[in-house]
Amino acid sequence: MSRTTPALLSGFLLLAVSTAAQTNPANWKTPSAEQVNAIYPEVESLYLDLHRTPELAMHEQQTAAKLAERMRALGYEVTTGVGGTGIVAVLKNGKGPTVLLRTDMDALPIEEATGLPYASHVVVKSDSGTSIPVMHACGHDIHMSSWIGTAKLMATNRDRWQGTLILIGQPAEETGEGAPAMIKDGLLTRFPKPDFALAIHDSANQPVGQVGFVPGYAFAAADSVDITIYGRGGHGGRPQSTIDPVVIAARTVLALQTIVSRETNPLDPVVITVGTIHGGTKNSIIPDEVKLQLTVRTYKPEVEKRVLASIERVAKGEAMAGNAPKEPLVKVTHAANAMYNDPELTRRLVATLRGVLGQGNVVEIEPTMVFEDFAEFNLAGIPSADFLVGAVEPGKFAAAQQSGAPLPQLHSSTWAPDYAPTIKEAITVETTELLELLKH
Ligand SMILES: [Zn+2]
Ligand SMILES: [Zn+2]
Question: pTM of the prediction?
Fold first, then answer.
């Protein structure tokens, strides 16, 4: 998909639209390309700065300070330290609905390998003294810069909308802690309660210029499960006098997969991944215990509950079959709830976005089993919608489609969004959505 043609075309169309908008502000559905281009240079310098200086989840102090300073300068009423490093920026503009727009702020423990001139070289020390490289490998720097651009356009065009804007900078999306922490710290009670909540995420599977949406469940619920399987260690040459937890663990890993293939309705998506398996020290020693670490992904709460119970049952059953000296320890940590896009709100925004971006550029996409703590807003009773903004350079996207070669994905050390047009597109998507929900 070419970016040049629609951009040129929309230039002509937007000229006509902006003339009409001057006479009737209610017709102003989106900022013009000229307006976006005019604010872009400062947005770009913020993007490059944020990309070079990423911070890990719940350590976004400098990042939050940079955003808070800019929001204050734009006239927003800014509160910092909400749910950790979270910031809440409120702009009241007369009677009307209250709409929340969220950006996430955290980066990932990944060593950047893009080779770009603005690549991150940040390395931090963990509490135990280990060096951890840090990279914005999920595009949260794209989200933050677009969010600032949107904040500016909304603040400088107050005559075009009415209501209350709540722009939040949220910590720790990657760990799923940020949104619950902000809500727990009074996000929905200390500030005007939102009627709608919006977010965007950059997409490594769509070309720039394409916006994706999923009505209903879009991202999965996630649980981490830690299993310790006990045996009785001894000499590797004398297995008859031991109970080998490695063999019990091997059987457990395979048996867990039957929960998905044999116990679950094939129309209910479930993932059980055993991500780590640790036990033993030497070839000739049978260890006392083996540890497994799993991630479990589901959509429906009832499926999640049943799958977690099955995991415990299988682990205990295999331990019993292997004559383990005691029951395995099964520890479940709930990481995130499933994210549900309010279908009515999604349809309303899709219709508006299609009117601005073109029918074929706003497409329904498939749900995935990654998680996103933006789920918390819909669960709190606020109709929510998270749209995906294509971030792959269209030429590269077309070449990959043709060759079948995989594209670098989010959370990869080589993820490099085609940032300039992606940020401009994201600003257009966000302002269009806000103007639709806050129109006169
Ligand atoms: Zn991520
Ligand atoms: Zn992300």
Answer: 0.87
